[in-house]
Amino acid sequence: MNEQRQRTPHHVIGFDPGLSGALAFYCASAPHVVAARDLPVAGREINGAQLADHPEQLRPAFAIVELVGAMPRQGVSSAFRFGRAFGTILGVLAALRVPVHLVAPTRWKRHFRLSADKEQARALALRLWPECTDTFALKKHHGRAEAALLAKFAAETIAA
Q: Does 31 reside within a domain?
C-alpha cells in the first residue's frame, strides 16, 4: 500500500456511526443523487474489513463522521459497543488515509433546520433525493438519511 491512489475531488463520504448506523457517498458535481447503505455488521460489531471496501473503491476527498457520545441512561455494554463501532470507523478511515472531519449533530442539523427527530432527517432526504426513494423508504432507514445529509452538509460547508 505504498502508492496512494488519487482522491476524487468533490466526493464526500458521511457516517452516521453505531451498529444501526450508515454511510453515504455524495458528489457535489451530481447533487441530485446519493448512495447510502447500512454499515456492515458481523455479530454485534462493525465489520471493518467489509467497511474498508466502500471508501477504498470510491476514493472520497474526505469523510465526515457525526461526533456523538454515550446517551444518558445507556447501559455500559451498549455504550462500549457504540464506542467500538465509532472507533472502527475512524480506524478504517485512518488506515485508508482518508481525511476525517468530526461534526456535532447540533451543527449539521442546524444547517438543515432539523430537530433531533430522526424522521425529519428521513423526510428531508426523500425530498432532496426523490430518485433515491428506495434508499430511504423505511423508518429504519433514518441512519442512511442522516449519513447522506452529513455528506451533503460537508460538501456545502467544509469543501466549499
A: yes
**Residue 63: all three cell numbers together:** 469523510
Residues whose CB is less than 8 angstroms from the CB of residue 44 and which lie 6 or more positions away in sequence, other chains included: 19, 81
Task: Identify whether 105 is part of a domain.
Answer: yes
Which residue segment(s) compose the domain that 103 sits in? 8-157
In contact, 148 and 24? CB cutoff 8 Å? yes
pLDDT tens for each residue of 4-31: 555 555 789 999 998 889 999 999 888 8
pLDDT average, residue stretch 85-112 = 93
Q: Which residue has the higher pLDDT, 147 or 45?
A: 147
- Residue 85, in any domain of the structure: yes
Residue 125 falls within a domain, yes or no? yes
Residue burial 2-19, b: 16+ Cβ < 10 Å; e: rest = eeeeeeeeebbbbbbbbb
Per-residue pLDDT at 1: 40
Distance CA 56, CA 54 (A): 5
Nearest to 12 by CA among 85, 123, 93, 92: 93
The predicted model scores a pTM of: 0.86
Number of domains the chain contains:
1
At 89 the three-state DSSP class reads helix
CATH code, domain carrying 68 = 3.30.420.10
